[in-house]
Amino acid sequence: MLDYLQQQLREREAQALTRVRRQAGTPTAPRQTIDGRPMLAFCSNDYLGLAQHPKVVAALQEGARRYGAGSGASHLISGHSVAHQQLEDRLADLNAPCIPGARALSFSTGYMANLAAVTALGGEGTDVFSERLNHACLIDGARLARGRKQVFASVDELADQLRTSTAPRKLIATDAVFSMDGHLAPLAELLALAERHDALLLVDDAHGFGVLGPQGRGSLAHLGLRSERLVLMGTLGKAAGVAGAFVAAHPVVVEWLIQTARSYIFTTAAPPALAHALLASLDLIAGEEGERRRAQLELLQAQLVDGLQPWVQARGWQLPRSDTPIQPLVVGDNQDALDLAARLDAAGIRVPAIRPPTVAPGTARLRITLCADHTADDVQALVAALTACP
Ligand code: PMP
């Protein structure tokens, strides 16, 4: 067995697929010390820069003083605190304009929230329709679910699959923002199909929540969608800057998750202090400071794209249009992506190279993520370092 694993690891290395971890010695921020070196980082999902916001950090400390360090048990035993409930109530209110009468349920991570939603709603007798570019945790949820799984690559393909499905119940699952591309899924069209075929639409808004829509309420609000069929998963460790996730949905759906979702029931509740910190973070996201930070992100994004476009085109690479602070630079070849990342690294700039299986073979890329705490000079430094590459 050990020989086999060693051989597999060598094969990965030969294909430039080995992944390495780096150690950050400072808080998440555009300027970090990584592996002991000061770096300008374009790799975090802390889009609004709230992970080190003084109000959020103070709320975390206050939460720990009030509730202690850990929750001590799962939600259904004794781990569900006042702070968790306040967070869920706030998230329910935030999502009520898109999901009438919404109730919300908090989770320790988005991975667990998606596993919960897909397995609990995709049981026997339910066909699960999963978008081809979905995040690994939606895919894993569909693999674990007892219902039949089908993968769709377009709205038309989904329409065909729904038409021919004879399952009594149907669940459609999609990322709202594709995490390696930054663009929005055609959610209005998917919702129309869900309405026509009496299906639920599970939307993973990991990268839209906090960033898109009025008050940062996310992709559904951005597109003005509203339906009882929507099941929204949002993460709280990205734009919200802390950790965790939530599912917001019709109260019957949420009650079903509480009663049956194994990755909700059989795990220790997240520390209540995190929920307390998240209340402060949600205030910032919905308030003036959130607006200011979202406006800054838009300016930085335009500057980045304008600065890189001629150089990218001259190389025959691609800078696909993005709806979010995730800007991919698609170079295709794994080694080219690694070489670019290495050159940036040598210049003190950290941008991750993303390779298969995270993205499709032949679409290796740099995944540049912007943060509202970046400055125009930071973006200029990135553009200069990239365009200096031969
Ligand atoms: N969905 C998407 C689209 C994601 O990008 C991620 C995180 N990379 C998750 C879900 C999982 O969220 P979490 O990190 O909170 O587990």
From TrEMBL:
Keywords associated with the record: Acyltransferase, Biotin biosynthesis, Pyridoxal phosphate, Transferase
GO BP annotations listed: biotin biosynthetic process
Pathway(s) the chain acts in: Cofactor biosynthesis; biotin biosynthesis
Pfam families in alphabetical order: Aminotran_1_2
Family matches, as SUPFAM superfamilies: PLP-dependent transferases (SSF53383)
InterPro entries: Aminotransferase_I/II_large, AON_synthase_class-II, AONS_Archaea/Proteobacteria, AONS_Proteobacteria, PyrdxlP-dep_Trfase, PyrdxlP-dep_Trfase_major, PyrdxlP-dep_Trfase_small
Quaternary structure note: Homodimer.
Names of the cofactor(s): pyridoxal 5'-phosphate
A Gene Ontology molecular function term of the record: 8-amino-7-oxononanoate synthase activity
Location of N6-(pyridoxal phosphate)lysine modifications: 238
Residues annotated for pyridoxal 5'-phosphate binding in this entry: 110-111, 179, 207, 235
EC category: transferase
Organism: Inhella crocodyli
Lineage: Bacteria, Pseudomonadati, Pseudomonadota, Betaproteobacteria, Burkholderiales
EC number: 2.3.1.47
Binding, substrate: 19, 135, 358
Protein name in UniProt: 8-amino-7-oxononanoate synthase
Superkingdom to which the source organism belongs: Bacteria
Family classification: Belongs to the class-II pyridoxal-phosphate-dependent aminotransferase family. BioF subfamily.
Gene field: bioF
